[in-house]
Each structure stands twice: as structure tokens, then as C-alpha cells.
Design goal:
The protein is α/β, with parallel strands linked by helices and about 375 residues long. It contains 8 helices and 10 strands. Keywords: Disulfide bond, Glycosidase, Hydrolase, Signal.
């Protein structure tokens, strides 16, 4: 499950910030929180910042440059990440004066009392296939913002852009993950686990959310830093998604249940952003009741038998290959009962037979 529209990405929800360099952070301050506000029942900005301070967050990431929030963050020890919204990228990219105005209004008006440390240009722009013109505006916009920052002799604010899971050439299985481009330092802009969801969203529960985030925090705050298999010992700034459950997000239930806190400010489960509290001191978690597979239409009807280990269509082992077989097999078996080749727009009809070797795909004659 994962944070894009497909469930498998929702659970991991990892976005990467390119062009960022972080070298001045202590392990405890490496953990930040995404402060989203897509809810009609959330605490005020003042209350939210007080909660972040109480939770001992080291950083906070905003999805804009909200004036009220930036004023309230003045005098705190929170390192702040602000964002140029997608709809403002083109103007900032096309005109240095527009970039200067953006920096004047959203940075200079608050800095240095508000510890702005990162300016993110857009949010997952390269994953938006509907407006590819913005793809070519990202780097010019970043350059213009950087130039404006430099002209004011500011050297402790980094410029970046968040990228989604498709920055990975390969993402499954996770141990085979590989970046399409390798030369940029990265930080984790969003990662987390949903504490609830719809009945068919397997694994979205409080137990898994607490387990994931607690283990994540221990790893990120470990001293000396653990890093990754490719970069052992590297300190990785990380922002947990998100501060609250937000009731105005998305269609899927998981989209509204990523919070560390309920909208009333109470913790959904015990969490320690410093990584210092032992697991034994946390309250006992409720056992999950949805970690098993959803018994839906594809359950035990024979349509997936040939993609089981050792069967004729098990190879190649990939989500796409197995999904191709499962969709074709299901439609061939149940088309006579009125089923369609749709699968929530994940499937399309094709005249190309994907059969290979001893693997024969079921098909429908139209």
C-alpha cells in the first residue's frame, strides 16, 4: 500500500527531496512532521505548534508558506520547510522579479526568527502527467529562488523539490530499490503508515502504524547513524506523514488516517519523536484485525492458480506480470456473468497475447 492512488504505494508513502544537503542536525532533530490542514475539525495553528513542541519534533514541513503559521513559529526551535505551491511555479520560473517577491513575502518577512531551513518548489510535480509543462519549470524556479536567497546573503536555507515513488527505477521488492538518478543527496519528505482505512485496505490499522513509525524513529535517531545499505552511516532527515488525521483528504479511507494525532489533539497511539523511550514503556496496542487478505472476487476461484510459486506463469515475478494474468484470467472466466475488463481503470483490453513459454494466458473472443 502507498501514498499514490494505488494501494500498494499508500502504506510506504515515501517521497524524496532532491537537491538538499543536511549536515548540521543532531539525531533527535532529524525527525520532523508534515503539518497538513485538509480537515474541517483540526486544532488552530497556535494549538498545533504547541503540540509539535510538546512532541519534541525537530522539524515541521508545510505545504505552503502560511503567514499565520510562520509568525507563530517565530522564536521556536523548529526547523521549518515551506513550499512554493504548484500553481505558482510557472511565474517564479519565468521571472526573477516574481521569485524575488515570493522570497520577500514568504521568507524575508519571517526569517531568521522563524527558522526557515528548506524551500520546496512544488509537490511531486514530476508525477503529474496532466500538466507536463510544469516539469520544465521546476529547475528554473529553483534557480531563481536560490539566486534571490543568495542575494540576501542567506546560506542556511536549502532549495529542493519533492519527488514521489516513481523516482525509483525499481521499487519491488524493496530490497531491489534503485534510483533513476543517483547524484543528488536525498531526505525523506513523507513516510508513515495509515492507522485505519476502508474494509479492503489490508494492514491499515493502529498496530501497524505505531510499529512502523516507532521502528522508523529508532532507526533515524540512532547514534551513530545507521544509514542505508548503500550509504551506511548516513544521517537522513525524515518527516513523518502526518500530524493529524485529515477528514477532507482523498477518496480512499487510508488517505484520511495517516495522523499521529486525532483532530482533538490526542495521540492515536504512543509515539516518541526523540527515539529515547523504550518500547516497554508504551501503552499496549490493540491487536490488528485486518492484516489478513481481503476475501474479494478473486478469492479462491481458481483465477490465480497459475501464478502461484512453481506454476507455469509464476515467472517473471512482478506485480505487472501477475496482475496481467489475474485480470485476463478473471475476465475470461466471469465475462459470461456480466463482468467487465475494467478493474478500477487499471486494465485495458489488448489484442497482443502476453503468453510466453508454457504460460498460456486465458483470453476472450469478441
Amino acid at each position: 500500500m502507498f501514498k499514490e492512488k494505488v494501494m500498494v504505494e499508500v502504506i510506504f508513502a515515501i517521497a524524496f527531496l532532491s537537491f538538499l544537503v543536511f549536515s548540521d542536525a543532531s539525531p533527535a532533530s532529524m525527525i520532523g512532521v508534515n503539518y497538513g490542514r485538509l480537515g474541517n475539525n483540526l486544532p488552530s495553528p497556535y494549538e498545533s505548534i504547541e503540540l509539535l513542541k510538546t512532541m519534541k519534533a525537530g522539524r515541521v514541513k508545510l505545504y505552503d508558506a502560511n503567514p499565520e503559521i510562520l509568525r507563530l513559529l517565530s522564536g521556536t526551535n523548529l526547523h521549518v520547510s515551506i513550499m512554493v505551491p504548484n500553481e505558482q511555479i510557472s511565474a517564479v520560473a519565468a521571472n526573477q522579479s516574481a521569485a524575488n517577491r515570493w522570497v520577500r513575502d514568504n521568507v524575508l518577512s519571517y526569517y531568521p526568527n522563524t527558522m526557515i531551513r528548506y524551500i520546496l518548489v512544488g509537490n511531486e510535480v514530476l508525477s503529474n502527467k496532466d500538466d507536463q509543462s510544469l516539469w520544465y519549470a521546476i529547475v528554473p524556479a529553483m534557480r531563481n529562488i536560490k539566486k534571490s536567497i543568495d542575494e540576501h546573503n542567506i546560506h542556511n536555507i536549502k532549495i529542493g523539490t519533492p519527488l514521489a515513488m516513481d523516482i525509483l527505477q525499481t521499487s519491488f521488492p524493496p530490497s531491489s530499490g534503485e534510483f533513476r538518478v543517483l547524484q543528488y543527496p536525498v531526505a525523506i519528505a513523507e513516510t508513515g503508515w495509515p492507522n485505519g482505512g476502508d474494509y479492503d485496505e489490508i494492514g491499515a490499522n493502529t498496530y501497524n502504524a505505531a510499529t512502523y513509525n516507532r521502528n522508523l524513529i529508532r532507526r533515524i535517531t540512532s547514534q551513530p547513524p545507521i544509514g542505508t545499505p548503500a550509504r551506511p552511516g548516513s544521517a537522513i532527515p525524515t518527516f513523518i506523514f502526518s500530524l493529524y488525521d485529515e477528514n477532507q483528504k482523498g477518496v480512499l479511507g487510508t488517505e484520511r488516517h495517516w495522523g499521529l494525532l486525532h483532530p482533538n489533539g490526542r495521540p492515536i497511539y504512543d509515539i516518541d519523536l526523540t527515539g529515547q523511550i523504550p518500547e516497554a514503556e508504551f501503552s499496549k496496542l490493540p491487536q490488528p484485525n485486518n492484516n489478513g487478505p481481503f476475501h474479494g472476487k478473486l478469492w479462491r476461484n481458481g483465477t490465480c492458480d497459475e501464478i502461484a510459486p512453481g506454476k507455469s506463469c509464476y515467472q517473471p515475478v512482478s506485480i505487472v506480470s501477475h496482475a496481467n494474468y489475474a485480470f485476463s484470467s478473471y475476465w475470461a472466466k466471469f465475462r459470461k456473468d456480466g463482468e467487465t475488463c475494467h478493474f478500477n481503470e487499471l486494465a485495458v483490453q489488448s489484442t497482443i497475447d502476453p503468453s510466453h513459454g508454457s504460460c498460456k494466458f486465458p483470453y476472450v473472443s469478441l
